[in-house]
Structure formats: C-alpha cells, structure tokens
Automatic annotation (TrEMBL):
Keyword Oxidoreductase: yes
GO molecular function, a single term: gentisate 1,2-dioxygenase activity
Catalytic EC class: oxidoreductase
SUPFAM superfamilies: RmlC-like cupins
Domain Cupin type-2 as annotated: residue spans: 101-168
Origin superkingdom: Bacteria
PANTHER family: 1,2-DIOXYGENASE PROTEIN-RELATED, CUPIN
Name under which the protein is recorded: Gentisate 1,2-dioxygenase
Keywords: Dioxygenase, Oxidoreductase
Record NCBIfam families: gentisate_1_2
Gene: gtdA
Amino acid sequence: MDGSASATRTPNDPQALLQALYAEMRPHSLYPLWEVLASLVTPSPRSAARPHRWSYAPARDYLLRAGDLISAEQAERRVLILENPGLAGSSAVVPSLYAGLQLILPGEVAPCHRHTQCALRFVMEGDNAFTAVDGEKAVMRPFDLVLTPNWQWHDHGNASGAPMIWLDGLDIPTVRFYEASFAERLHEPAHSETIPSGDSMRRYGRNLRPMRGTAADRRPAHQPLFHYPYAEWRESLLALAAAEAPDPHLGHAMEFLNPADGGPVMPTIAAHVRHLPAGFETRPRQATDGTVLVVVEGHGTARVGEAEYRLEERDLLVVPSWQSLTLAAGSRMVLFGYSDRAAQEKLGLFREARL
Ligand code: GTQ
C-alpha cells in the first residue's frame, strides 16, 4: 500500500504536505531540522578542508616575483596566502586558521598595526630581520618562533642584506567566525624602540620574572614572552631525542609554552616541534586540531588520509581535522607545527585517536 501511495501522490500525501509546509515556512526563515540533522551532527568530523602540501621552492619564487612588483609598505603585509584547496575563497588553511608566507626585503618596513587576531611567525629563511612587539624588537633567525599576541603593536623590518621570508600563522578565520575583528594602524610606520631587544626573553624566558609584589611587570602578565629561538628549542628537542625512545605516534615532540600559565603559546593557537630519527615511521594518528606542519630539517614522506606526499626541507603540509597522519623519516627529520588545539581544548572539543 505504501508503495502505491508514494507512486501516486495526492495533495493529502504526507510528503507532499511536508514539502508544501517547507515552501510556506522558507520566506519566514524557518527550516526543518530533520532534513539536515545527519549532516549537522555527524558521528565524526567531516572537514571540507583537504590535505595539501606546498613545495617551498615554487612558492618562494612567486613571493620574490611579488617582491619586484609591490613594496611591503604598499601592501601593508606582502604575503602569499596558503589557502586550502577545499576552502576556496576563504583565505583559510583549515576552517579556523590562516597561513601565509611573508617577504620583507632589505631596508623595507611592514608598517605598524595591531589587531585582535593572534599571530605567530616561523622564520623560513634570512637572518637579522626583526618583528617589533610593543616597541621591543625580536631579532629573527632561521626557524625562530616569534609571537604577536592579540592587540599588541607590531611592525616588521629588515636591516640585513638579504630577503627574509617567514610563515605567518594567524587565527583570522576564528576571529571572523566570532565577528570580533578590530584593527588599527599606528600613525607612524614603525613603533619607537622603547625597550632593548631581548629584554622580555631575559625577564621571562628563563623561569624567572621580576618581583613586583601585586603590581604587574611591563609586558601583559598573561602573555609575557614572544620569542622562542631555534637555538634553544633545538637543543631541548635533541636532548629529549637522545634521552628517550620516540613516541610511536608523534616521534619526539615538545610543545611551546606560555610561561605565565603553562598552557599553549596563545589563546587560540598551539605550537610544537617534532623530531623523527632517520628511518622512523610513526603509527597513524587522528586528531581534531587542524594542523600546519613545516619541515625544518631532513626529508621523508607523509600519508594524510589517502594522500601521500614527499617532504623536503621547508615544505609545508596541512593536515585537516581527523585525517589520519603517518610520517616516515628518510633522514633525521625535524618539524614545526601549529594548530587550533589551544582553542579546542578550552571548548572541551579536542580528541585524538592513536591507531
Ligand atoms: O604581519 O600582521 O599574513 O596582519 C596577515 C595579516 C600577517 C601581520 C598576515 C597580518 C599579518
């Protein structure tokens, strides 16, 4: 009876009546949940983002060509966006995060501004350029991590004789999601240098801080440190690698910490480094944080879901939420990564599966 009823729908047929109801409701911005529930509340994450690898050399060539055509001053920030091929038009590398490659040529200044977005810089090449954060310069060396936490003034400059390129990691799509973007330009191109370079590292980067009773010291108390030099993180990572066997799913891995609270470096973004001994292959692991990885040293392969990528020095890889990742090191490999894990942990959302 049911079959014949659906074959010959009458105006009293429940399906036809439902469709008519939907059509009537639509102009009032009302929709039936039961038609979309399964795609809204999925049994496991379904990311529109796709795994992708950017080889460094061709990206660098395009960036240097842009450098011939537009100045850092004109562009405000001369950056090539690493947009996820599954998220066209979004300027996002995963739905919550942004990635870009920024170029500063000798003598240039990227003018001073501040915004509610948090940013990290990971130096890809060049030496002795700087990011100034609230009037204090961090002198940037290859593979240093430099933060510009939200609402702190920052400008970038290059007093060296060579191009400087770094990876920008920002929470632009997260701030867009919350509709909480504010930004302003300083009236001068560069903030005056009010604090000697390296001051905050010496104050806060050594498990110390000035004693002021209940009064705050000069940096924001919740975000005192903004420079994590390669020379320091590399020494710690290699010491860990010498001291213990690699974790089967991660290799040797260390997270960058905010010394104020022992948590991730910024409220929305976590960052870490990994070491894989030559010949080591990780077991597959899934995690809900969308992650961007950079090859600092060595070569190998990455399997992300069904896709496989060869990785060379300075290549960039995006691993969207819940895609299983396996890394195999052809030589000793060192990687840097950042992800939205910091935000997900606060929201009680972060999960991983070790396969
Ligand atoms: O250096 O402040 O790649 O504001 C995108 C937005 C870099 C920056 C980006 C930014 C910056």
